[in-house]
Amino acid sequence: MNELLPRQAKVLKVEEQTPIEKLIQLDASLNHQPGQFIEVSVAGVGEAPISICSSPTRKPMEICVRKVGRVTSALHRLSPGDKVGIRGPYGNGFPMEKMKGHDLILVSGGLGMAPLRGVLQYALDHRKDYKEILLLYGIRDYSLMLFKDEIMKLMDSKDCRVYLSYEKEDEVCKNLRKKCPERVCEGVVTKLFGMVDLNPDAYAVVCGPPVMYRFVFKEFMDRNFPPERIYMTMERRMKCGIGKCRHCVVGAGTSMRYVCKDGPVFTGVDALQIKGLIG
Ligand SMILES: Cc1cc2nc3c(=O)[nH]c(=O)nc-3n(C[C@H](O)[C@H](O)[C@H](O)COP(=O)(O)OP(=O)(O)OC[C@H]3O[C@@H](n4cnc5c(N)ncnc54)[C@H](O)[C@@H]3O)c2cc1C
Ligand code: FES
């Protein structure tokens, strides 16, 4: 079988999440691991790697797409009933089994909430298997918050402690901060670290824009959090998605890795050893 050959998946639902991001439900079940991605193709346009943003415990499978160029714009034009090509799931994903019995600290910025939503849903669906679940989520403003209904519901729930930072104050954010000043603040996501106690026995799961990693990693290091307990998912330009084309290579020599195959999830130890992994 040609592993580069996509199979067809029907679009079940398309929902606007923010002015630039859409949630797309696909009629597909891949038994994936949270943090894995698929290559999604639109006939006559091209292919793009996109994280699966739902947990394997929830059906149907969902992806969240930010419109930035040719393929993602074509994905934004889809309607229910349309077909896309999919390959995968690819990459290693987050070690959900290994993290059982521990606190989870999820740190996300912007679109990074997409892969972390899969982790969050999985942990909530296996709630007894994990201790405390903390979500530190940084947004630019409320209009750009992904999965608004789910996040707002979680803010009032005992299953997960949500901490929220925003860069531009609007009415919703202002009211949230007034209601919950110990968990909501103005600023970037690293500001939230001042509001939480990091249990060194916890596992951290991080996803955000490239610039975020260096600063988040520093926060963990400054607090003596063990780097081997930090899992970060990385984005690189990709083509094949399966370790054949070398488009996604990081590092060199013995520390050379394929982000598509060896990642996209790397540990804090990798970040210390692989040059250029987190900038
Ligand atoms: C493992 C992985 C998971 C991803 N998950 C998601 C996801 O869940 N949702 C989502 O919306 N996107 C995700 N992406 C990013 C997505 O793959 C790119 O945005 C997409 O490939 C852009 O394709 P395009 O044809 O729309 O853009 P193009 O027309 O190719 O490019 C448009 C612009 O975007 C820039 N660009 C293109 N690809 C990338 C990239 N990988 N990184 C930085 N800049 C880029 C180009 O330089 C150009 O400026 C992921 C990428 C990886 C590697
Ligand atoms: S995308 Fe081809 S080797 Fe990673």
Give your account of this protein's structure.
The chain is α/β, with parallel strands linked by helices. The chain is 20% helix and 29% strand. It starts with 6 loop residues before the first strand and ends in a 6-residue tail after the last helix. The structure holds flavin-adenine dinucleotide and FE2/S2 (inorganic) cluster. Flavin-adenine dinucleotide binds next to strand 4, strand 5 and helix 1.
Which features characterize this protein?
279 residues; alpha/beta; binds flavin-adenine dinucleotide; binds FE2/S2 (inorganic) cluster
What series of H and E elements makes up the topology?
EEEEEHEEHEHEHEEHEEEEH
What ligand molecules are bound, each kind once? flavin-adenine dinucleotide, FE2/S2 (inorganic) cluster
- Low-confidence segments: none
In helices, the fraction of residues equals 10-25%
Mean pLDDT, all residues? 95
**Distance linking N and C termini:** 38 Å
In terms of DSSP E residues, the strand content is: 25-35%
Q: Class by helix and strand content?
A: alpha/beta
Shape: globular
Strand count, sense and barrel status of the largest sheet are:
7 strands, mixed
Q: How do the strands of the widest beta sheet line up side by side?
A: 10-9-8-7-11-12-15
Quick one: how many beta strands? 15
Count the helices. How many? Answer: 6
Cα-based radius of gyration, to the nearest Å: 18 Å
